[in-house]
Design goal:
Blueprint lengths: L2 H11 L4 E2 L9 E2 L3 E7 L12 H13 L3 E8 L2 E6 H6 L7
Parallel strand pairs: 3-4
Antiparallel strand pairs: 1-2, 2-3, 4-5
Length: 97
Amino acid sequence: MTEAEAIKQIQARFPNVKPSKYEYSRFDAYSHEAIFEVKIRRGKHYAETLIEFDKLAYNLQYAIINKKSFFYVVFSAGGMYLFDVRELMRRGHDFKL
């Protein structure tokens, strides 16, 4: 699966999502309501999901400042997993930093 194919799957659920305009953007897709960081795990499913600290920190602050949701979307052999990071933070999720 490519990032473009992953974003098309996200668009099936969130029709207004667009791919990021820049190759080295801090997030992979966006809409007026949310930003999306995409991770593709080819051929394997992991019991735990990781996100790079710098992506978590930057995107979380960006989402808060701009009043957007921040979704971390993981594609693996097990399917598509969508994490609402702002909501997880609000609920006190332990990110094991």
